[in-house]
Amino acid sequence: MNTRLIAPIALSLVLASPAAAQLGPGPCEDACTLDQVADWALDNDRIAWDFVEAITTEVGPRQAGTEAEERARAWAVEWLEEQGFSNIAVEPFDMETWVPGESHRVEILSPFPQPMVVQPLGNSASTGDKGIEAEVVGFESVGALMAAPNGSLKGKIAYISHDMRPTQDGSGYGFAGPARWIGPGIAAGKGAVATVIKSVGTDFRRNPHTGGTSFPDRTTPIPAGALSLPDAANLERIFERADGKPVRMKLVLTPRMIGTTQSGNVVADITGSDPSLPPVLLACHLDSWWNAPGAFDDGAGCGIIAAAALNVAKAGQPLRTVRLLIAGAEEVGLWGSKAYAEAHADDPIAVGIESDFGADRIWRFESNFRDSNPDLHRQLAQSVARFGVADSGIVASGGADLNIAREQGSAIIDLQQDGTRYFDLHHTPDDTLDKIDPEQLRQNVAVWTQVVGILANTAGPLKRSE
Amino acid sequence: MNTRLIAPIALSLVLASPAAAQLGPGPCEDACTLDQVADWALDNDRIAWDFVEAITTEVGPRQAGTEAEERARAWAVEWLEEQGFSNIAVEPFDMETWVPGESHRVEILSPFPQPMVVQPLGNSASTGDKGIEAEVVGFESVGALMAAPNGSLKGKIAYISHDMRPTQDGSGYGFAGPARWIGPGIAAGKGAVATVIKSVGTDFRRNPHTGGTSFPDRTTPIPAGALSLPDAANLERIFERADGKPVRMKLVLTPRMIGTTQSGNVVADITGSDPSLPPVLLACHLDSWWNAPGAFDDGAGCGIIAAAALNVAKAGQPLRTVRLLIAGAEEVGLWGSKAYAEAHADDPIAVGIESDFGADRIWRFESNFRDSNPDLHRQLAQSVARFGVADSGIVASGGADLNIAREQGSAIIDLQQDGTRYFDLHHTPDDTLDKIDPEQLRQNVAVWTQVVGILANTAGPLKRSE
Prior knowledge:
Two copies of one chain form a homodimer.
Chain A: H1 3-15, H2 18-21, H3 34-44, H4 47-58, H5 67-83, E1 86-99, E2 104-110, E3 114-116, E4 118-120, E5 132-139, H6 142-146, E6 157-160, H7 172-176, H8 178-181, H9 183-189, E7 194-198, E8 224-227, H10 229-242, E9 248-253, E10 256-270, E11 280-285, H11 295-314, E12 322-327, H12 335-343, E13 351-354, E14 362-367, H13 374-385, E15 390-395, H14 403-408, E16 411-417, H15 422-425, H16 438-456
Parallel strand pairs in A: 5-6, 6-7, 7-8, 11-12, 11-13, 13-16, 14-15
Antiparallel strand pairs in A: 1-10, 2-3, 2-9, 4-8, 5-9, 10-12, 14-16
Helix pairs in contact in A: 3-16, 4-11, 11-16
């Protein structure tokens, strides 16, 4: 055991916050095996919960590029220090920053006047304080919008619907997502003065799902907002009951671009015993949308990767360094992922793994080296079967913050979480601590501990040339 | 069968809205028994759904005393005409009207700055546009607040918590409700400049539960708001993590009293064959809070009573008139109930029944004549046992809109609905159509049809002198 590593962790039990002091006794009296540590984490881990509970309480929402995200970085550095990580650093980068503004209102003016609930999409333009009043024209899908003649939306507000259903693997997002990702840009190209979409989500709460949209290069951004799903359903009933009469809407959204500001990635290590070996990179993101404290997205992910790194060290100093990449500005365009990949293009990593899909249980193991290194793939998959995780032939492609792994062609693992209720909460004000099931969170930590521990103690290349 | 009654109903199938036209074929080819109609309603009723779907779509929120509630009355009159009710009338009354204003914001200033979600309570004063900044002091209950020394809250914002759990009979409301009903008044009396409460509810969504509060006679109203339950939980964690450091809050709420405006009750009859007999009075309320279209509270209730009245007529003209009281301004102080009781003090009613507890299934039958008229009590209880309704020895006391029944000492029946999820939605923006389970809604209609049909065809006094 490496006392240099263990000492600060033990110290944190005395000096750190009350929450940290409750992290409790270790998994075994003396030297622990990795399996023992992972089993212990399943029932006892408190590190991941402590991270997400503390950041959602002490920081709250942390929109990329803003003062709140800067506070989150300072907070994360302090937390990582308390936990005993090494080489803690902020790696700053510049970004172009969008902020949501203060006014987010929508109402139907006729034929059935009533207020609704809306929030702006990332990169939305502003309507100005006085708002826009126009007829709203409904499209049942992005496909239907695409089929509308050019210029046919001149002076109109476009409403874009979709039909998203919950799925365990989150695949419904791929079908419904374009309504948000490209819908407003297409509507703008056809002359629309604004767009409202049915929130890309699967719940029925009056809390819109925001998220980034983008406009093609020569298209001037227009105001773009998401209605909550109950409001979208109501608007669709209004179209039906209006029976051909025009439906007029007033929309007020006042987001703005505030120019270049600074964001940053936070990195931290559990130092390995052989510095010549490329590290195991564990990624999550620090930023959230302004409308929620980001418990599922992605406070939980950062808690899980930090807990896994610390737990691995409980079984002895690993061979490889385990590095955390707590990325900045993910939500608004992967600024942190791109900056990290560029800054560390010449620093090889052994493998990249990301946690950014909530806090529900991991159900499937995927790697991108099942063919090139079948023994390692099998060893890893077998090691987590006892936590209810299935093996898979799907080739892992990694999460948003793993640009570096994709660009280096390194090994990648995806520990797929149950996404059935993820899109009930995704990018909504409802992404709060109470949504996290501590038992499922600990299952994540146990699986991550097991996988990261094996990877960090495997000397040879993980993904072999095929 | 009375053709005068049936004709307009049949007519409505041709002339009325497309929704009404879908109400479908009747329960049987020729003369129907009441049991047949009730059984048919269990699987086939569309009237209640049509009402609540249409009012939430075509009217939306309808705050008492405002233009929106006036639109709702006009809408209700038209709907009742389409359904073939008789003696449809609006009975106007004056009221003192509170409106919520535009700005509802709260943020923690220190030690952990972040925005939260708040909505004003009915009768809240305004902070002014610039808001109030002050230290917030937490109380775990109204009892703890009461124990605070007089003057000890001078210049402070009081936060009042509680511990409400879901219950089938809604009894948790009685324990937690005082935090809202009297908490702000008590805090004001001790010098507080404002109050925020943990929403009186049982969900974990970022949607506050509003509702009326009141201030004692010689206490000047202060601004009073409800935090959503996740925000209240967060504030409590902030107190804990602040570790004695003052927690400062900025609160902006801009409600106002707008003076005397007009509200009104909407009444309508299914005329009985013996006008000398006192009518059966079915009550619900038309107004909702401004923040939701009032599907559970109380669009569903109005749909249920209207459907029951129309269904009873399908078994032939009843002996007694069945009268709907669709009350105005219930939420803000039972103005409609009081006005109706006063205006009709000399018009005896036979029995009062109200539906105002959502749209989930009825599970218990209660009357206030079990002792005085045990045969009728037993007949009614037995008649709805096949719909899964239990008998009860609890003495019915009637809902908020049945002041007239209490003042006249008439018979009262309570058809108790399952309230397990009622306080997830109560007075929140989430009280929308999608929350209604059509199957449970129809069970309500079936039970009501059965009970109202028996009552409307019982000639003698329902509640006998004891």
